[in-house]
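Lecture 7 notes: from sequence to structure.
We start with the chain below.
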Amino acid sequence: MSENRMMKIAGDFLNETNERLQKKYTSMMHALWMVMMTGDMQWAERYGEEETAYQDALAEDGLFEQAASLSSGGAEILTPLQNRQLEVLRSELLEFHTSRELRTSITAKWNELHYKISTFRAEVDGRKLPEHDILKQLATSTDSGESRRHWGASMRLGGEVAPGLIELVKLRNRVARQNGYRNYYEMKMAAQELEPAFVESMIREIRHALDESYRAVKAELDDEICIRFGIDREEIGPWHYDHPFAQKCAWRGGDIPDLDTAFFRQRLHDFFRGRWPEAESILNQADLMSREMKSQANCCLHIDRAGDVRVSCGMAPSLEGAAVLLHELGHAFYETGLREDLPFLLRQPGHTCLSEGAALLFERLAYMPSWLKFAGLEQVYYGQAADLHRHYLRSQLFKLYWTITFIEFERRLYENPNQHLNKLWWELVEEIQGIRRPDEWDYPYWAAKAHFTTLPVYYVNYLLGEAAASQVEQTLRNRFGTWFSEEAFACLSRELCSPGQCRHWNELLEQFCGEKLQAKYLARELQAVADFYVTTSLNSDKRGMAR
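Predicted structure tokens for the same chain:
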């Protein structure tokens, strides 16, 4: 076959595939948005139908084989953009390269569990409470019994979801084995262009750098818990922490008034003007308030990969609520920065971890004294911005160790879903997070975390995203003095966001930062606050010995 003929066949194939997939993808994402916004069962059913149609398109007979054939037979002839589209397409097709019967079973089970999770509300004293109310109670209570009841109510979701989730895990593993992988975790990692060994090395490096610091910070937090609840250390249970999974810490400094959300949105409009042209329409159309039946999940959806970017969250009138909104806006910034001339297959973030990196970078603004001052918000916090930043870093350390726990459990879940999962969960929580299991530990508390069901093998992107955010921030600081100047925003959009998936994500990051993804920048940031607690702990020990 001539080179011209090969290029025409590949071009026609990719053009037709991009057009067909974009139409079905758009219909699916619109239905997903509607079910998340309304909780309407009709939209849930519609989403199931649209998702099945999209998956049918991905699983069309011969599509995977044709993409593989073009990729292997014409790699030296095709353009770099064509070759990259074929690589991305093959990765996306991998999960759906199975029988329609199996795909339908997976979709039906996912939709059933997703609806259950989306509409779940913890019930306490006959009242159904949204997640925000549970978190507020855990963060403010001084009564162990009350905290335990609210924690237990939120964890009841695990018992409702676990049987179906384990069934879903086994179905996913069947697909993976059919495609030559040992389990779904390994297949999903490959589809994301991630090496398990690379992720494991990142975790080892982080823990080597921060384990001692984490233990010192947690000891400080446990002391605060003992004082707050009037209990001994041996009495501390998982319900005494500020989050059901101890993935963050609440602010314990001076009183902070509720954030005026309307004022905050206006300040965001003012800040982004000149930095991000699309911000005004994104903010104006965003769905930011919690309401009955609306999904509690915060999200940014690029409905058509052609500019229809939508943001939703349940924004609490607090600094944390502001951080949640900024996080989703970070995703939106990346999505709106993608080059308009990219084909559908490549018009998406270079990698999920890079999109999470942008989101986490935006989220950090809410706790940066320099940005709070720049945005005209410093007076809201009565000079407490520096303390808030230290609190944020402490909370980041807790979130990081929770993330590692999640990743380790999910990997082992897919390796053997028949093992004693409740036992495995608490072994990891005790070893990594240092949190003692409750007496009634043999219950699927872990399944209450929606990501296991709705976004499998996704949490690894939070870990890599945190590392990427720190590395990108340092790069922009080195170039511009601050990462959120107009010049820095333009550089970030132009050099990191706009290429989409034209290149391997780590090569893209290397071009931007001068090196591939490293854990050292994140470790340095967290070490700074951790050192304070280590020093405080050592001084306290010395004073104790002197007495």
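Points to note: The beta strands are 122-124, 127-129, 299-302, 309-312. The chain has a mean pLDDT of 91.
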